[in-house]
Amino acid sequence: MDPVEQRRSGVAGVTVQGLLMSDKPVRAFPSLYATIYPVMMEVAKSLGYALALHGTLNRDMDVIAVAWTDDAVSAEELAAALSERLGAFIGLEGPNETPHRKPRGRVAWSLPLTGGAYIDLSVIVGDHLNRSDSRREMLDAQIYHANEMIEALPELYRERLRLYGVG
């Protein structure tokens, strides 16, 4: 099968000038992706995220979402809001049931679209969104300070006794 026939059929191993470009099936949906991206940007911005595209848009649309504001919602809320908004727009089938954990703390979902197209949504969550960890760090710092004060109490007590001429 020649490269043109491979592209039309979505068969893996598409070549350009004899070079193997990809062993993944080609299902080009760039016009669909170009149409829905502004909608995704609107939803993401309203929830405190910035979006960026990554990849070729040949097989899927790789979208990177980055928590951009202090009041950005959780990654799960973002994925649900995008699914809901795009579902009304193009017949989104819904996100896969559980997110995939990725390197560097990314969380990812596959959002299948009608016709075999899909969005790979990868969310980079800022440290400020992990409020339980920052709360824990604050409490640890307070406990450390309290322990320092407790350790200093015997010396303070002895100093007080000396000041009052007792002991």
Describe the protein's architecture and organization.
The structure is a single chain. This protein is of the alpha+beta class and 167 residues long. The chain has two domains: 28-126, 2-Layer Sandwich (Beta Polymerase, domain 2), CATH 3.30.460.10; 130-167. It has helices at residues 3-9, 30-46, 75-90, 131-163, and strands at residues 14-16, 19-22, 49-54, 61-67, 100-101, 107-112, 118-124. α2 crosses α3.
SSE map:
Elements: H1 3-9, E1 14-16, E2 19-22, H2 30-46, E3 49-54, E4 61-67, H3 75-90, E5 100-101, E6 107-112, E7 118-124, H4 131-163
Parallel strand pairs: 4-7
Antiparallel strand pairs: 1-2, 3-4, 5-6, 6-7
Helix pairs in contact: 2-3
Compact overview of the structure:
This protein has 167 residues and is an alpha+beta fold.
Task: Write down the overall mean pLDDT.
Answer: 75
State the distance separating the first and last CA atoms: 100 Å
Tally of alpha and pi helices = 4
Major sheet strand order: 3-4-7-6-5
Largest β-sheet summary: 5 strands, mixed
Indicate the radius of gyration in whole angstroms: 27 Å
Categorize the overall geometry: rod-shaped
Low-confidence stretches: 6-20
The oligomeric status of these chains comes to single chain
Structural class of the helices, strands and pairings? alpha+beta
CATH superfamily of the largest domain: Beta Polymerase, domain 2
| CATH architecture title of the largest domain | 2-Layer Sandwich
Strand content of the residues, in percent?
15-25%
CATH class of the largest domain: Alpha Beta
Number of strands: 7
